[in-house]
Design goal:
The chain contains twelve helices and 18 strands. About 30% of the residues lie in helices and about 25% in strands. By secondary structure, it is an alpha/beta fold. The model has no long low-confidence stretch (mean pLDDT about 95). About 45% of the residues are buried. It starts with a helix and ends with a helix. The strands form two sheets. Strands 1, 11, 12, 13, 14, 15, 16, 17 and 18 form a nine-stranded mixed β-sheet that branches. The protein has an eight-stranded parallel beta barrel with strand order 2-3-4-5-6-8-9-10, surrounded by four helices. The chain binds ligand LLP. The site of ligand LLP has 21 residues, from helix 10 and helix 11.
């Protein structure tokens, strides 16, 4: 970590208290711009899957680079439109009829929503004449953990690709305009080859089935980022070239210039974010384990506990301290609340060698920009932390922390 960032994170902790989320704006903008530059195919629309991080300042930053949004709920749709999104793809799964119909209505009123149908039933639900997308579940899935693989026979998402003829039947019967097809194979993928394989599935569906109203082909999100220091980022240039070359050829063969759509969530934001916490208890045990207890837990960052994910940790206060093995433990009343995971093969809790951690040291947990705060809860009745945007050395409060009193008041009803 460079000195300027370290200083800024310490300043965030000292001025705002801990735990605190900090997002570096320049990283977000760079990721958005570099992805855009890598896709040389000119007719494209990039959407941000805002479930990854729906902080207002973060979403506005991304919208400012020309992205639209991929939204999964009525709340995300309403919030995204309020923030000025020019385009929203509503990718829903098992939502209530009330929610689905409410978004269809907003779509009619604003003209900004693409409704992505996740089942034959949802296509049947659409009012006659509606323009829509359909989500396809093909045989190629991928991702960093079983929980995040969204294509293949185990997946609850989309219309099985074998059922595409039924889609066409419904589209004709209900006079729908099928303007888009969509596929999202999973999350945390850094192999270009995997994306190529999945792309081929969707293109093969389109080669087999003539869709006269088709304008948009959405290859989903899923672009992974390195979490471990040993991991390499995706070859973005090769990724963009692969998509662009194949899509250009496909459009040429089809005799129609279609729009290429992508909807990354993790990629634009993951590496921008840090969760900064304070060490409060150092516990040496007779079982050759030292626990460094910190004042946050899986209520604020659930990825290590939920997926066994590795998150790099920096001791901001003592970067040159003697190297020692630690289990970095959270303050939640569950034994699974250990942040040092993913170091071994099994993704189980493990000790990690870190510069000596002393009581009062600030630790930064890296790659907390995606699915960090967004998946946080008030488990154990602890409020979510504040979120700050780091913009050219300045720390801006992007969302205030709730107080314990606020939480207690809400529970009182
Ligand atoms: N599109 C759809 C339809 C999705 O379901 C998702 C993520 C995305 C796009 C964005 O995927 P991304 O580019 O972020 O990989 N909580 C997990 C990740 C869950 C992803 C859910 N869907 C984690 O922390 O790894």
């Amino acid at each position: 970590m460079d000195a300027a960032l370290r200083t800024a994170l310490i300043r965030a902790a000292e001025t705002q208290g801990t735990p605190v989320y900090v997002y570096d704006k320049a990283t977000i903008v760079t990721r958005c711009e570099s992805l855009n530059a890598a896709i040389t195919y000119p007719k494209k629309k990039l959407l941000y899957a805002m479930k990854a991080n729906s902080n207002q300042a973060v979403v506005k930053t991304i919208l400012g680079t020309g992205f639209g949004l991929d939204c999964v709920s009525l709340g995300e749709v309403q919030f995204g439109l309020k923030l000025g999104a020019d385009r929203v793809l509503y990718t829903n799964n098992n939502v209530s009829d009330e929610e689905f119909n409410a978004v269809v209505k907003i779509g009619k009123e604003t003209g900004k929503i693409w409704i992505n149908c996740d089942s034959l039933q949802r296509l049947n639900d659409l009012p006659e004449g509606t323009a829509c997308f359909v989500r396809i579940n093909g045989p190629v899935g991928g991702g960093h953990h079983d929980h995040v693989i969204t294509c293949g026979p185990e997946s609850k998402f989309g219309v099985p690709w074998e059922h595409v003829p039924d889609v066409l039947k419904i589209v004709t019967e209900r006079k729908l305009k099928l303007i888009g097809v969509h596929q999202h194979i999973g999350s945390g993928i850094r192999e270009v080859e995997k994306f190529a394989e999945a792309m081929e599935v969707l293109l093969s569906v389109l080669r087999k089935n003539k869709l006269p109203d088709l304008e948009f082909v959405d290859f989903g999100g899923g672009i992974g980022v390195p979490y471990r220091p040993t991991e390499k980022p995706i070859d973005l240039k090769a990724f963009g070239a692969m998509l662009s070359t194949r899509f250009t050829q496909f459009c040429k063969d089809a005799g129609k210039e279609l729009t290429l759509v992508l909807e990354p969530g993790r990629f634009p934001v993951a590496e921008s974010g840090y969760l900064v916490a304070k060490a409060n208890t150092i516990k040496e045990t007779p079982y050759s384990k030292t626990f460094a207890g910190i004042n946050t837990g899986f209520n604020h960052l659930v990825r290590p506990t939920m997926y066994g994910s590795y998150h790099h940790i920096t001791n901001l206060s003592n970067p040159d301290g003697a190297q020692k093995p630690y289990y970095v433990a959270g303050n939640i009343c569950e034994s699974g609340d250990i942040f040092t995971r993913g170091d071994g093969d099994e993704n189980s809790a493990a000790s990690r060698t870190l510069p000596e951690i002393r009581r009062g040291d600030f630790l930064a947990i890296h790659n907390a920009g995606a699915y960090g705060y967004a998946m946080a809860s008030e488990y154990n009745m602890r409020p979510r932390p504040a979120e700050l945007l780091l913009d050219k050395g300045e720390l801006i409060v992007a969302r205030k922390a709730k107080s314990v009193e606020d939480v207690v008041r809400e529970f009182m009803g």
